[in-house]
Write a structure and sequence with these properties.
The chain has 203 residues and is α+β, with helices and mostly antiparallel strands. It has helices spanning 11-27, 33-39, 45-57; strands at residues 61-62, 72-73, 81-91, 96-97, 99-108, 116-122, 136-140, 150-155, 159-167, 172-175, 184-186, 190-199. The chain folds into two domains: 3-79, Winged helix-like DNA-binding domain superfamily/Winged helix DNA-binding domain (Arc Repressor Mutant, subunit A, Orthogonal Bundle); 81-199, Umud Fragment, subunit A, CATH 2.10.109.10. The longest helix has 17 residues, at 11-27. It catalyses: Hydrolysis of Ala-|-Gly bond in repressor LexA. This is LexA repressor.
């Protein structure tokens, strides 16, 4: 592969590339620079142009010269990984206070969405769902999960836990996937996101 296509992206370049991908999938045509700026809440069209040019030079995007809305993903897009924030640790066990970090983690294309982040798993309450201590869960930010979704829940405005979500008649049940743990039953809970996938590192 051409070495220019293996260069790392900056955080802003990743955001722009992911915005372009999502826009193309939704509309089937490319966004304008102004739409990219608006979508990412940026004020400088010139800055967007510079980032797009850098993404072309790194092999992620291509476009026709002097033709509006001609930005396209390169054919090697499927080989890409994307850097997302690793926001801290979530407990698959008894809830604890979240531990924040400033790290990032690379994820494959099929896990990429506009609002995703990663958390490192501590504990074993979700092992029957294939989520083990030391794994990284990829989380999509949502506020209204469906019954059965594996979610990151914030309890008492400070403690987080990873469980399956079930809305019952008069309470919410956060169900572990390990018979050694009892369900957590609460009247109210803040959902920080649902699990899209799991990444496991063996090194």
């Amino acid at each position: 592969m051409n070495k220019t296509k293996t260069k790392q992206l900056t955080k802003r370049q990743s955001q722009i590339l992911n915005y372009v991908k999502t826009y193309l999938e939704k509309h089937e045509y490319a966004p304008s620079f102004r739409e990219i700026a608006s979508g990412l809440k940026l004020s400088s069209i010139a800055t967007i142009s510079d980032h797009i040019q850098n993404l072309k030079e790194k092999g992620y995007l291509t476009s026709a010269k002097n033709l509006a809305r001609s930005i396209q993903l390169t054919p090697t897009w499927d080989e890409r990984t994307f850097s997302i924030p690793l926001l801290g640790t979530v407990v698959a066990g008894s809830p604890i206070q979240a531990i924040r970090t400033h790290e990032t983690i690379n994820i494959p294309r099929d896990m990429m969405k506009p609002n995703v982040f990663a958390l490192k798993v501590r504990g074993d309450s979700m092992i029957d769902d294939g989520i083990y201590e030391g794994d990284y869960v990829i989380i999509e930010k949502i506020v209204e999960p469906k019954n059965g979704d594996i979610v990151v829940s914030l309890l008492d405005n400070e403690n987080v836990t990873l469980k399956r979500f079930f809305k019952e008649k008069d309470h919410i049940r956060l169900q572990p996937a390990n018979s050694n743990y009892a369900p957590i039953r609460v009247k109210q809970v803040t959902i920080q996101g649902r699990v899209l996938g799991v990444i496991r590192k063996f090194a």
